[in-house]
## 1
Amino acid sequence: MIRRRVVAGLTGAGGKLTIPVNKLLLSSIVPEVPADAGQEVFIALVHPCAFGGECLPQAQGQGEHRDKQRHRHPPWQSRPHEQVLLPDEADQAHARDDEADRCVDRHAREVAPSVGGLQSHEVAGQGDGGCGSRYRSDQATIWSPLNGSAMARLRFVVVGCGSIGRRHARLLSDRSDVALEICDIDADNLDRVVSEAGQVTTHSDFEAMLETRPDAVLIATPTGHHAAQTMAALASGAHVLCEKPMTDSLESARRVLAAARRSDRLLGIGFTLHFHPAMRRIREAIDSDRLGRILHVHWHVGSYITLMNSTSRYQARLEGALALDYAHQPDLIQWWLGDRPTAVFAAGVQGGDLELQSNPNVMALTIEYEASTVATIHLNYVQHPDRCSCEVVGDRGWISFDFHSGCFIQGDRATEARTQIEILPERDALYLAEHQCFLDAVSGAAAAESPPEEAIISMAVIEAALASWKKRQRVTVPPFD
């Protein structure tokens, strides 16, 4: 069973943000404290390996179909490890707060704030008696324990304040390195975010907001707006994190990809399930060849609550919204396999005596891959309470996972062993890790997760699935590279 304990926090104007961390993995992610590192360091955010995922290198010699470049080491593996302040050390640490803060203030005044994002500067006087050992927030700069530098707070605008946008805004508002702003045409949506995230700058006009030249923009609007808003934000000079799916069509996804390649800004697509510890464990089991050759992957997603939570109700107007909303599934299969999808057969219906509808509201997809893997995906906007599960079958072993019970089962053919554990991360933890990964990429400390070159593959699968549903025949996956 995955056990969690609060062991990390972030100090700033809003107080301390606590984050769940897997206690069992602390020994692997927290090294011995260097003698000259100071006495007190808080983790700003915790990466997915701290929620139960393993950080294994890619196994070699697993077949030519495996893309050797797709498995990037998680960004935290190439960065200095943060130290962790445990709760039983808190009293002693708080006694040093005033001295540490005075030290941070002194260094921060020696460096002018940077312009245009997370531009780090070297600070004189580092290493004198624990200076630089804490994050501290003020109106201009923060102090980084990783490199002892002062940085401007990143102007980060969340565009679209529906259900997902509100979550992003609430979590980003707790970061001392982000100056949060929000944008929505609905004043009620803006008011709801302000009530949850505190007083933040608000915008009601997207184009006018871009004229203020924010550092980064998070697109959380209905799917049909993703392409135009992403391209406009990139053109304005902003880094962009766009919620999945990338766009509402493969054609528009190609335009977004071209715009991203022309731009010197970063574009990431928000596939938060990449940060789910169970999804990472599956990927690591595949990469390490513990499951052997993967022959079948199956997903089941039933989620009427998605329609209930949608403030815009765009699913009633956008044909094929079910497949687009659950771009997670073809994306994760691609992320696991690193194999090229070749063909899709899909069937779908709209039915049921339900208040909220989408066309179709039930779909079944069969996806073929070059390396002879077959994937099946069942999607519906009918089941309530919702259900989500997956299964991966290889010739050496298999894994099944249920998102609601947290039941993770792994079977091994050779030993006939069946291992069961529980993995139930807090949902906020996935978004926190996603934000940290994106900000690391913006600062140049790591590569982006889910870049457009990878995210467009799921768009090609969805395009083929919707064409197959309409034509009632098997459809070849269109080119995406």
Note: The mean pLDDT is 77.
## 2
Amino acid sequence: MVIFKFIFSSQRFSVKARRIYASIAGLLQVNSTQLALQIAARDRFIIQSSGYLAPCFFKLI
């Protein structure tokens, strides 16, 4: 995100270029949020699954 801050502060880029970079930054932020939610959901599933599988594993031993 440092790159995007530099671009916005620079006077060399036109308004159109700033809009493009702003949309890219927005997409990256949304994608990172969605990725974090997916990882959390996966971790929650693994924890729940391990809770169910542990008693089954010990019954087999």
Note: The CA atoms of residues 50 and 56 lie 10 Å apart.
## 3
Amino acid sequence: MSTKDSTEEIIRKIRNGNSGDLDYIYSTYRKEFLTWGKKNFREADFDMMIDAWQNAVVAFYQQIMSNKLMF
């Protein structure tokens, strides 16, 4: 995934089966999400935050594939 790709292009690529873009999103934003979660949900342990991140990425993917997430 190029940093120049627009949101629309990324969604189109994922919808067309390019898992590389989804992998990039997963690995790029994972640390930021975990940091945010640790700050805002102090009772949650690390495994809970990992599960939440994975669930969020799966939901993102499902929204794309069901055409519910469009620009």
Note: The mean pLDDT is 90.
## 4
Amino acid sequence: MYARNLSKQIIPILHFIFLKNAVEIFLFYHRLTTIFNCTSRI
């Protein structure tokens, strides 16, 4: 019972961390591709 309650609290936190990381990774990748596009144009 206690473990099930604990997982109910942990799972949303894991989802939040994952989403936050996914956004940061996407922004980082987007920045890299933008830099790459600028340098390839020159």
Note: The chain has a mean pLDDT of 87.
